[in-house]
């Protein structure tokens, strides 16, 4: 019965996470252009508002984590559905730059309340150190957020318009996301007295900084590749059609790697799987730079697999290293830099690609090697502390 209850929670959070990601993070890729044309602003302005929303999410993350540590995550997730619905409705009603930016700020608040970090902290509060499996499970389901969200958003936009797409997603938060979070996610047990207050000193500051750096590297690389992968593959020698086809493999690689992590690698320490994950991008980049276009699919599969595993590590590694007490606050702290660099990566890496072409991958590869060094130092620290 306990396993059945846990599977129900995984399915519930996997569903609501898919909805939340599809209706926020993955929205601009489809709607930025029609929004800009209708509101008389540039597409860059729309993406700028989106980046500001990500920065707000990073700023609010630690505070949201503290609330989840103290009260559990169910009510926070329910609140996220209300905020998402309000932000999407306002976005659909926007008449100019001011309402557009205001709507994205509301969506930034919704992302702080309702994306992976909040779901991970909710699971840590429910299951403690046994939360690794559920964390992997919800990322496995929500890994299809772009696969589902982009076609749905594009179809509504093509058939009815971008405003109607916003309204449909807003309605789904109210009629689907909110009742699922409220009715199928249990309330967390109350924390032990003093537990939340003690956790800030349990995790060594150096370890937190190293972990934040690793996640920032992963966030920068994922955001940069998400924005520029087809063009990067074309610059490396793939034809436009081949570049698009290869880039489309990212989602399959992410989900495939999460299946492997959920099954074959689940008995390994998350630190070991994280080490494997950060190496895949540099190895794939080396293949692309050495062999050009014919290696486009190899690079995409390796990058996607590593990115999929690192998404899981973002939830499971802090849990394994520092425990469940105070998880939400720590999660907000160690992932805040990643959210900041995710906001700036598309522009910064785009400028580098314009200047250096595929050799821009030397930057992300070097960062990956440095992240591996950070994980090695975490391992030394963990061994030294026992």
TrEMBL record:
Domain spans labelled Major facilitator superfamily (MFS) profile: 9-383
Entry annotated with the keyword DNA-binding: no
Region forming the signal peptide: none
InterPro entries: MFS, MFS_dom, MFS_trans_sf
Transmembrane domains' residue ranges: 38-64, 76-98, 104-126, 138-161, 167-185, 206-229, 241-260, 272-292, 359-378
Lineage top rank: taxon: Bacteria
Record's protein name: MFS transporter
Source organism (scientific name): Plastoroseomonas hellenica
